[in-house]
Amino acid sequence: MKYAAVVKHAREVTLMGTADADHWAAPLERVGLTPCRRDDRVGMLISVAAGKWGIHFREVAIGVAACRQPGCNAPDGYYAAYAFHSSRLFAWCERTFFKASHRLATIDLTLDPPASIEIRSETDIALRAAMGTARERSRQETVDIVFPVFLPNRGDRMASNRNVFHVRIAGETDAYPYESESDFFTVGEDNGALAMPLLAECDFQGTEWLVRRDAIHARTKTKSEAC
C-alpha cells in the first residue's frame, strides 16, 4: 500500500471505549455505513498523537467502529466523527487535500501514567480524559495494523459515494485498564468552534488506555468508494 504521509517516532495516547450505537446510526447511515454493534453498544476510539512532519504537530482522531454492511462481526474500519489539529496549516491541508474535517485546537497529551489527553480553545476545555491514578500496564504487544477511515459527508444529504483513506499504526503498545472509579472523561457542552455534540451525548464509556511511545503513523491519499 502506498502512503501519502509517514510519521516516524510518533507518540500516542488512545482511549478505547464504547457508546450508544443508536446515537451514531444516523450520521453513519448518511455515508452508507452502520455501527458495528455489540448488543446496543458500538466501539469508539479517541486518539491523540504527537509527531513531526516538517514541523512538530499534535492531532486528534475520534472514531466510531463502522461496518459497510449491517450485521458484521468485526468493524470494517472507523468513521471519523471528529478530528483536530494543532497546526493551522495542516488542518487546512487535511480539509482541502484529504477532504477531512480537521479543526484547529490546542492539544495536550501525557504518556506516562497517569496518562491524559486534552483538547481546548484559548478559553474553554472541549475534551479532557485522564487516569485518576498511576497503574501497572495490563499487557504489552507490538502491533502493525492497517484499517480504513471513513470520512463524514459534508452536509445532511445521503451520499452515493463516501471518501475513505487507510491508516497504518505500528509500534510497541502498552495497554492499561480504564478504571471507572478513578479515571474521568468529560466533553464540554458548548465550545463553539470545538463543539462535539454527538460525542457529548452518546454515553461514551472508557474501557482501555493504549500508549505508544515510538510509533509509525502513515496514511494513504483519500479516495472515493461507492456506498
Give the averaged pLDDT, no decimals: 93
Largest sheet: 7 strands, mixed, barrel
Structure classification: mainly beta
Q: Could you tell me the radius of gyration in angstroms?
A: 17 Å
- According to DSSP, the number of beta strands is 15
Note the overall shape. Answer: globular
> For this structure, what is the CATH homologous superfamily?
Acetoacetate decarboxylase-like
Helix-strand pattern: EHEEEEEHEEEEEEEHEE
Short description:
With 227 residues, the protein is mainly beta. The protein is 10% helix and 55% strand.
3D architecture notes:
By secondary structure, the chain is mostly beta strands. The protein has one domain (5-226): Acetoacetate decarboxylase-like (Beta Barrel). It is built from three helices and 15 strands. The chain has helices at 21-29, 88-97, 197-200; strands at 5-20, 34-35, 37-38, 41-53, 55-67, 77-85, 103-104, 106-110, 116-120, 125-130, 139-150, 161-177, 184-187, 205-219, 223-226. The chain has a seven-stranded mixed β-barrel.
